[in-house]
Structures are given as structure tokens and as C-alpha cells.
Write a structure and sequence with these properties.
Helices cover 23% and strands 36% of the residues. By secondary structure, the chain is of the alpha+beta class. It has one domain: Gcn5-related N-acetyltransferase (GNAT) (Aminopeptidase). It binds coenzyme A (COA). Coenzyme A (COA) binds next to strand 5, helix 3, strand 6 and helix 4.
Length: 178
């Protein structure tokens, strides 16, 4: 799948969700998975077989003053952007009929700002674009706010519940094959 990106501004902060594998911070993923930490080879295999939507905080790197040219003081060189990964949502998918959503996470210092909802809207855009999509599945905590979160954002129905977890299945009738 061609990589996609989305931007979101909140005050003076710019956030990006991207499916570009080259940008993913392996360190971020390793520290987000509390237990167990994976070998880098296993992490690579996991990423190669997933569509990872990574959430980044975008910031401009500071350049030393010498880089600002005297000839064009009004338009200094644009410093390059840097992206700090602060969240993710992972789809295990065949990119056609089925997707399993897992590892939905926003770092605590950026929770409650609407970023989780926005990231799930990006997930929905990705799954909605799958031409033969039949189901999006995921498990979530069996708590009212979680149920509401996924029901509203992914139009998903709770399917089953077991030991404090619920299984959601979001269904869309596939387009008729020609
Ligand atoms: C769930 C999570 C991704 C939401 O991200 P977020 O950026 O804080 O979410 P937003 O600010 O966009 O929206 C917050 C909404 O999510 C709801 N929510 C759903 N699940 C939640 C959870 N596990 N923890 C906290 N809030 C949750 C809140 O009730 C709130 O709803 P409201 O706006 O109607 O009050 C984030 O809280 C998180 O990473 N939690 C820890 C990991 C986790 O629980 N992952 C999901 C497993 S099912």
C-alpha cells in the first residue's frame, strides 16, 4: 500500500499520522510493549506484516545562527522537521478483505487531546479504502468509554465478551466482484 499521512493542528503543535514504515521508531514500539520486549528481528517481521499508523509530534529542528544566510534574512532556510513518535495503531491485514486492529496507544502526556479519536478516524479511512473489506476486528477493554469510543468511531458492534475484554467486529458488505 502506498503510504499515507494526515495532519492535525492543536494550538501551536502539529501532529502527523503516517503509514510510512521508514519513519517508525523501533525504540518507541519496544518501550510501548511492556512485556516482553521483542528481538529486533521479530519486531521487523511484525512491522513487515502490519500496516502501522504511527502518531508523531512534529517539531522544527533548531539550526545554528550561522545557517541563516545574510543575503536572505527575511526568508531564512527552513530547518528540517523532526518527528517524535507518541502513539500508534496497528492493523494486521490482507489489505483487501480483513483487518485486525491492535496496539492502539497514545503516550499518557498526550492523552485526552482528541489524538486517539483522530488516529482511529485515520484507521477507518485506511480500512474503508480496502475494496473487498468484510470485517475489521479488534479486542478492547470491556468498559463503557471504550465501547462508546469504538462503536462511534468505527461503527463497530460488540460481538462477544470474556474476562473483562470484548470482541468487536465491524462489518461492511464487500463490493460485488465483477
Ligand atoms: C485509548 C487511547 C488510545 C485514547 O487516546 P486519547 O488520545 O486519550 O483519546 P482522545 O483524547 O481522542 O479521546 C478520549 C476519549 O477516549 C475514551 N477512551 C476510550 N478508551 C479509553 C481508554 N482505554 N482510556 C482512556 N480513555 C479512553 C475516553 O472516554 C474519551 O471519550 P470522550 O471524549 O467521549 O470523553 C489512550 O487513552 C491510550 O493509549 N490508553 C492506554 C492504552 C489503551 O487503553 N489502549 C486501548 C486498548 S482498548
Amino acid at each position: 500500500m502506498e503510504s499515507k499521512e494526515w495532519y492535525y493542528r492543536l494550538g501551536d503543535q502539529t501532529f502527523m499520522v503516517s503509514t510510512e514504515p521508514q519513519l517508525v521508531s523501533h525504540d518507541f514500539i519496544q518501550t510501548s510493549f511492556s512485556d516482553p520486549v521483542m528481538s529486533s528481528e521479530n519486531l521487523r517481521i511484525m512491522l513487515d506484516n502490519s500496516c502501522l499508523l504511527s502518531l508523531y509530534l512534529k517539531s522544527r529542528d533548531h539550526l545554528p545562527p550561522s545557517k541563516l544566510t545574510a543575503e536572505s534574512p527575511a526568508a531564512p532556510l527552513q530547518p528540517p522537521c523532526s518527528f517524535t513518535q507518541i502513539g500508534m495503531a496497528r492493523l494486521v491485514t490482507d489489505y483487501m478483505t480483513l483487518a485486525f486492529l491492535t496496539d492502539v496507544f497514545v503516550v499518557p502526556e498526550h492523552q485526552g487531546k482528541g489524538l486517539g479519536k483522530w488516529m482511529i478516524q485515520c484507521v477507518k479511512e485506511v480500512t474503508d479504502a480496502m475494496p473487498g473489506l468484510r470485517r475489521v476486528m479488534f479486542m478492547a477493554k470491556n468498559a463503557p468509554q471504550t465501547v462508546k469510543f469504538y462503536e462511534e468511531l468505527l461503527d463497530a458492534k460488540m460481538h462477544d465478551q470474556e474476562r473483562g475484554k470484548v470482541v468487536f467486529m465491524s462489518r461492511r458488505d464487500p463490493e460485488v466482484d465483477s
